């Protein structure tokens, strides 16, 4: 009887619990496809505290095993920001689309846990009204959150005794330590607290605050001059922007000027490489009490979550139907205005100066503790976090040294270091809101925290397009050397056919005449005169064709069909082949010349050089700024961001022995910057002789990397010994290796300030290398054993075998990888090969696809490679890199060239660690370099998508320095739109380039709410550059626009000469035969 009563009581309790749950069950979510039922239940509503606060929560069951999986609480920061922002824009199961429909987030954190998002404190989001000023401090909020949890576990009692974790980000760096400290001192019955994890946690006003200007400078957001002045004038008060303590007046002025330099209004400081949503935005900069932004920005998102997710979430949650569905209000009840962050709460909140004292107690309770940092967040950056964990704060002992960790996509996801009681991880390329921009790596980090590394290594994860592009699921492609058919230009075939037919007709006429002589022995005079007339007319016609046909004239190097791309589908003419130089070394220099897509008859001519030394410009042609891209299937596609949009461009493989340029030269005496400059000048002479219509056009030299040596040497040669018809106007170089010592010494500083090595490793480097890291970086001169050991250990810590140091936020290709790191080849044997990473229309395996394409026989025939085919093409020639005598510095060339009326642009992708912007900035401004004085302040520049594209500053003597935000060593590869715009502005000036039209990519459309104007912002006026021709070009208009005058190709001349010799021989033979039979000829009467 007693047992029966207990069972009935238990059943009644279970029934009551079920009833209590069901009143919060969300049965229908507006905008969500009801035909695809969810794999989990979810609940939303209010829980009322003792003092009548109604805190709103959204609880989703696990998608895997809700009856047994752990329970996790998520808290956003602010203070005063809603966790529903996190649910919809970071790690929740739902994402709002631009039509306010809802789709499921593949990377939701409730995959394997039950998860609750809480809007805290009261007054935030749907959590009731704002309270009085004494309510808002960390002690009170911790107590209120603990009270909420007690009620929550009572309502959902089946979750009791599960493993329980607390997670959050940003100002949760205060919320969570205060809450955990309270819960270990006053546990909630049957709540099994196991640990906590905090992302980009604001923890200590002084330490975090003092790190922010270091991050700004080391990430190209403020100038070197501003940074140095702030360090001197502000001292330990840099963090006053984060504090209530007044800033010293002089310091505050400098800090505000730094904000102006960084253009913080238009920048997303929470994810510095992301786009800013161009829609209306409600996100507040809640952490920066003293900042005075004129535009409120939200974090940028990637993955399933777009740049405008915050604005779309705001619109969605302010629909009455949504508020009724999630039990915010009853049908017909009071409508609530939802905001992502409550300004009144933020203003009233009395923030704690530090949560470090709480860690002293927490770390003694055997909890799992994870602190993680997206390394692209400037607001609460990893530099400050590492400092408060280590020497400036907790001073925790290191258990396991700094090393890389990898995501399920086998990409380097970040770095980690294990301390006593705490793990610190960075997430490479993520911002303040890690799950928003690195959803796969964020989910993997979270699940490894909850379940442990061994378990999460066995989990399956969604695969996105980026992973597929990186070759994660693709079998290695071998180079195809089979013959797919000879590819011959359509016009070349027609022209050759015309000549052959003409020669054939002439030969037939001569043959008939000779046959008559032999058979009859005599000619009649009239007939002989008739044959001679026919021959004369034929020769004249052939000559007219030879010297009048523009199509025939370019036939020798005109490129026709390429794999997967018909000639008629290419909206411009392009030519490729080898030009023979008249030198004792007999170079055959390969070039690929693409005419302008706009006005080929008048646009400038530009030379492009890749670096190395020893790397082919044909690599840049297909993987950076050329008009074509090599595809995975071996075909060729068009690149909408090709730099020949408004310029005629030449890519040349230099020096001889690189790419398709032949032959390979002797290892001694040839491979140095003086010889290379001389051969390039000779190449230009031959090129202008072949294409004389380009003479007197404006001419520019451009390149990247080791072209920091190539270009200044060549330009000096062209200034000293001008080429007739070459109208040199300037030069531009990207991420230029310029001075071995200055560039080299910036290398490891960049590694440290970008989270690639630990602070301890960096301090060791400075000690072991005597502050001269350069001695072991780009060259091994004076490289001591201790310094080399420290450099190699730093490379090992950064795991440079597995991450792309040319673009530190990019993926590596999991297909064949034989890219050489030619700039510091002496380290290659010790630290392994490197690979480059691309975005835009060019993927991370572009180098592999390019190599496969250029090693095809039909492609080599199409681009007119001479000699035995197929020849072996490689992107970088290690023989040349190893034998190249490198110049230590090209600064002397600049001192000679600057101030001579040349336009000079130096630009740096700020995500390149190899030749990074820090070293470049130093050699431009410091006394050991050019010591140039600024001619304009450091300011942001905007791309045609109205996003901050980077920063720029003009200097005396005509030099301009620009950074490209989020770009790597190969700027056009990863920021193609901004790279093209930078190039156009260099050629045509800022006033003209701002009214040019550009392609709109998916990112640009997403950031504009799918309303994108392809015209760059600027005053309404007629486009003087006729950009509309891009959309309207036809093959006929291109042929008409690009028709050259009076140019004869070598192949055409050869055919004509052969025909002429044949005619001459036949005529001589006939003449002799007539002379021998002269007496017989006079016996015949006219026919």
From TrEMBL:
Q: Which Pfam families match?
A: Peptidase_S10
Entry's family note: Belongs to the peptidase S10 family.
Q: Which organism is it from?
A: Peronospora effusa
GO BP annotations listed: proteolysis
Q: Name one GO molecular function term.
A: serine-type carboxypeptidase activity
Name this protein carries in UniProt:
Carboxypeptidase
Q: Where are the transmembrane segments?
A: 497-517, 529-548, 1047-1071
User: Which Gene3D superfamilies does this chain map to?
Assistant: alpha/beta hydrolase
Question: What PROSITE patterns does this protein map onto?
Answer: CARBOXYPEPT_SER_SER (PS00131)
Q: What are the protein's UniProt keywords?
A: Carboxypeptidase, Hydrolase, Membrane, Protease, Signal, Transmembrane, Transmembrane helix
Instruction: Read off the lineage from the record.
Output: Eukaryota, Sar, Stramenopiles, Oomycota, Peronosporomycetes
